[in-house]
Design brief:
Number of helices: 5
Shape: flat
Helix content: 25-40%
Order of helices and strands: EEEHHHEHHEE
């Protein structure tokens, strides 16, 4: 990914969500050891049962069994080359407020406000918003080496690409 580029990750299953809706339709499978998850997916999958009969664990992973996390994407982008990837926050609000602004204001508003407060807390503490899917935009900024220890070793620049 080039410096200055933006990656949009949309509708990718979230690794930490308790219900794995994308490839198996099973609860809590993402928290189990690989061998048990593999066996459960092959024998009890409610989604794509023919595909989940595969004896190849990597096929299950490619189908989305384990999902992903924002931290994994950031780490992989950082390893892939120069630059510093970071999550782009919505303008004038945080991700929880943005989510709340896109929900129906008429239905279950108090519950949605509590959910937004939980989202805000997990975003601050863990750097992620809990949801079934990852929906995030990530920008990779150029990292220019700098000799000053006070500057933390690099200066962030935004390219106009």
């Amino acid at each position: 990914m080039r410096s200055g580029a933006v990656l949009l990750v949309n509708q990718t299953p979230c690794r930490y969500f308790p219900y794995e809706h994308h490839s198996t339709g099973l609860w809590f499978i993402n928290y189990l050891p690989d061998c048990l998850s593999f066996w459960l997916a092959r024998n009890f999958s409610r989604v794509n049962p023919a595909e989940n009969r595969s004896r190849d664990w990597n096929e299950h992973l490619r189908a989305g069994l384990r999902g992903g996390t924002e931290a994994e994407i950031i780490r992989n982008l950082r390893r892939a080359g120069a630059g510093r990837p970071s999550i782009i926050q919505p303008r004038d609000c945080d991700r929880a407020a943005y989510w709340l602004s896109r929900t129906s204001p008429e239905r279950r508003r108090a519950i949605k406000k509590m959910a937004a407060a939980l989202f805000r807390l997990t975003d601050k503490l863990a750097g992620t918003v809990p949801s079934m899917n990852l929906d995030v935009a990530i920008r990779k900024d150029a990292c220019v080496p700098h000799g000053s220890a006070r500057a933390g070793g690099c200066i962030l620049t935004h390219s106009a690409a």
